[in-house]
Amino acid sequence: MVTATNLGFPRIGGKRELKKATESFWKGTTSEADLFNAGKSLRLKNWNVQKDAGITHIPVGDFSFYDHVLDMCALLGCVPKRYNWDGGKVDTATYFAMARGTDDAPAMEMTKWFNTNYHYIVPEFETVENLKLSTTKLFDEIKEAQALGITPRPVILGPLSFIGLGKIKSDTLSRDDILIALLPLYTQILQKLEALNVEWVQIDEPLLVTDICDGMRQAYRKIYGTLKSSTNVKILLATYFEELGENKDLAMNIDVHALHIDLKRGGTQLDYILQHLPRERTLSIGLVDGRNIWRTDLDVAITLAEKARESTGSSRLMIAPSCSMIHCPVDVSQETKCDSDIKEWLAFATQKIDEIAIITKALNEGRDSVAQELADNKAALDRRTTSTKIHNPDVKERISAITSPMYSRKAPYNARKDVQADIFKLPSFPTTTIGSFPQTKEIRQARAAYKKGSLSQDSYIAAMKKGIEHVVRYQESIDIDVLVHGEAERNDMVEYFGEQLDGFAFTQFGWVQSYGSRYVKPPIIFGDITRPKAMTVKWSSYAQSLTERPLKGMLTGPVTILFWSFIRDDQPLSETCRQIGLAIRDEVTDLENAGIKAIQIDEPAIREGLPIRKDDWAAYLKWAVECFKLSSCGVADKTQIHTHMCYSEFNDIIESIAALDADVISIETSRSQMELLDAFADYNYPNEIGPGVYDIHSPRIPAEGEMVALLNKACAVLKAQQIWVNPDCGLKTRSWDEVKPALEHMVSAAKKMRAARAKSQAA
Ligand code: GLN
Ligand code: ZN
Questions:
Q1: Nearest ligand atom owner, CA of 557
Q2: Mean pLDDT, to the nearest integer, of 278-298?
Q3: Is 271 exposed, middle or buried (0-12, 13-18, 19+ CB in 10 A)?
């Protein structure tokens, strides 16, 4: 028999129960017992959904109160010293201290889980001395599942990915030292599982889809040989997010019982794997997308599975999602306000579980046994393929009519610079901000009331205008050079545009975990994108009408809108991105025509889209840069294009950043003490740069002197005339009490720099 399996179910609950449970526990309004009970009922519900659907291998250990990598740190006793852990059981207080920090000890670092929007806690290796099994959560949950009649398939993160995703914090410690220390612990875990009568364990090794070195390859062979021989529990080695590429033979020959491969993002590897997979190995194929929200084409999936079965036979084949479903929302049936045509094209985790069961049943009992389900699936997909809601011939024609001059400014930067200098007449070290200003209670309330329908459009516009006027007057009063309108009308930099563009849909409950108790609800790009009317012009023009100083229009770039949404899967990403690029281009043109002289197009997500393997970077960067330029290059030379990026390591993509050819880029650098600028200096970056001079993510108010020091650092590597002065990101999360002194210090720092420069030029 072919087996129906799952690799992980969303832990947050269909109504965000986990968020409520953890946040109320943190506030102290509920007890630890309440928290644990909430966890228990979420697990029970999730397991039953899977069991009732007919999944035989149900993951246990995928549930976490914060993050599954943090759970591994706790399980293995990998707790940094600063949390004063006593070496006993890692308790709830220590666990959340690691996640969130305490007054005395900062939280552990967090970073993106491969190329998803999920953030994991980065393991820290300071010493190997304290490593030992230090929680019983996994084993308790296995017993809990068994008591409910669920056959658990525990899931843990494998040792090589655990180490590879972590940071070594000691000069005297090597990766091998850690591996030697961890191996016995993994063996103990497997022995405990065996004692609990567990048949299969899923060990995740996503590092296998990345570029790894020879030493790592050897380690894979050796470690898994040892693990396998230490237990009778069958090991499923899970890889996902990409194809195995160079590591195909390695992965197939790692001596375990089964290998999972992602066929959604690594579809081309199937033939090779079927030809070369050792005869004794079971193959788990990821046919249902664990990272997106579209209904699976069951016919295509079943055909692939049948092909796989010809090689493996039924008993050596498992049907699975491409990866854990923690990257997708819980249940589409909760969506009552969604357009019903679009809704039938969607499958969230609960529906995907059914799809896995249907595919498996079709294999085991024949397609006839699921004839009705297949007919429904086909009808819905046919309606999607031919829907006029998706396909807009005008958009397709516009895309095919794009010509190469549309991807570049009329004159090169050197010429534009002089034209702009004449118009803007800015001092050296010009000051500006990144766009948003504090979102006060009045602003939020007005927006919420307007959305609910309890505030009239006129009153809403009046409230926003009041906010804009306040921000403009304030910036004038402290003598900022290039002003912004403050983004009062925006709740979110992607949603705001998505709501006004055609081709986007929104959900009520489509939440996915970003990190800890922070969830996001990305818009869904389902169709060809058009801009029915201008989106920001009225706000920017109003703001500009209030002042003689130049005001920056403020837009989100195509690449960021793309990656912060669920993306349609029926055309290449680049195609969808180009459509957004054209819509933004129209907005840029409208702003220019309305007399806006500077326009900022934010692209904080440009680095996020980078493929996992370096070999694929160039192709991605090519279209990402093109889409940005498509959006920004429709203007005259006199119009100054700004862009903004944050949270990125730019060093390895500096060439592409330069290729964006924005007149001014503002970037996050203050936390790295301007280190980042070395890349710009080494590359001889030609255009203007605003290195963020203070960290807006902290409530701390920076002194003028600190910012002068950072600017002097910047002057050491860049030309003074290239440098702008700005914070490192938008100010919307800060209060006015924090923003005012910080910006005032920033303006006086810029003035100090100007005075010093004038003096040195005079001398
Ligand atoms: N313009 C946006 C703001 O100021 C930029 C936000 C971001 O970079 N994430 O809020
Ligand atoms: Zn930013």
A1: 1
A2: 97
A3: exposed
Q: According to the model, what pLDDT value does residue 763 have?
A: 83
Q: Which two tokens stand for residue 118?
A: 């999920």
Closest CA to 578 of 597, 561, 599: 561
* Atom 9 of ligand 1, residue of closest alpha carbon: 604
Q: Nearest-CA neighbor of 761 among 729, 733, 720, 727?
A: 720
Q: Which two tokens stand for residue 742?
A: 């910080």
**Closest C-alpha to 552, from 490, 487, 615, 484:** 484
Q: Supply the DSSP string of 707-748, one letter for each residue.
A: HHHHHHHHHHHS-GGGB-BB-SS--TTS-HHHHHHHHHHHHH
| Residues 689 and 661 sit within 8 Å (Cβ to Cβ) | no
Q: Which ligand 1 atom minimizes the distance to the CA of 646? A: 8
Cβ atoms of 317 and 283 closer than 8 Å: yes
Q: Which CATH architecture has domain 393-435+480-762?
A: Alpha-Beta Barrel (3.20)
In angstroms, the CA 523 to CA 224 distance is 41
Q: Could you give the CA distance from residue 227 to residue 191 in angstroms, rounded to a whole number?
A: 10
pLDDT of residue 676: 77
Whole-number Å distance, alpha carbon 602 to ligand 1 midpoint, is 7
- Specify the DSSP class assigned to residue 521: -
Q: What is the pLDDT of residues 703-744, one digit of tens each?
A: 999 999 999 999 999 999 999 999 999 999 899 999 999 999
Q: According to the model, what pLDDT value does residue 183 have?
A: 97
User: SS3 breakdown of the chain: % helix, strand, coil, rounded to 5?
Assistant: 50, 15, 40
Q: What are 205-220's pLDDT values in tens digits? A: 999 999 999 999 999 9
Which ligand is in closest contact with the Cα of 560? 1
Does 471 sit in the ligand 1 pocket, CB within 6 Å?
no
For ligand 1, is residue 206 a contact (CB within 6 Å)?
A: no
Using N-to-C axis directions, what is the helix angle for 457-477 and 537-545, rounded to 10°? 50
Residue among 117, 434, 603 whose CB has most ligand 1 atoms within 8 A, to mutate: 434
Which residue has a Cα nearest atom 4 of ligand 1? 730
Residue 732 near ligand 1, beta carbon < 6 Å: yes
Closest CA to 7 of 303, 271, 253, 349: 349
C-alpha 24/C-alpha 332 separation (Å) is 27
Residue pLDDT, tens place only, 330-356: 999 999 999 999 999 999 999 999 999
Ligand in nearest proximity to the CA of 493: 1
Phi, psi of 672, rounded to the nearest 5 degrees: -95, 15
Contacts 24+ apart (CB under 8 A), 404-412: 406/585, 406/630, 406/633, 406/634, 407/626, 407/629, 407/630, 407/633, 408/629, 408/633, 408/661, 409/633, 409/635, 409/637, 409/641, 409/661, 410/636, 410/637, 411/637
Å from CA of 745 to ligand 2 middle = 20
Helices 32-53 and 137-147 cross at an angle (nearest 10°) of 50
Token representation of residue 58: 């149900």
Other residues' Cβ atoms within 10 Å of the Cβ of residue 403? 6
In sequence order, the β-bridge partners of residue 260 are 238, 284
- The yes-or-no answer on residue 697 being catalytic is yes
Distance CA 757, CA 763 (A): 10
DSSP 612: S
Nearest atom within ligand 1 for CA of residue 435? 4
> Which atom belonging to ligand 1 lies closest to the Cα atom of 644?
8
Q: How far is the CA of 495 from the centre of ligand 2 (A)?
A: 16
Domain range annotation of the chain? 393-435+480-762
pLDDT of residue 621: 98
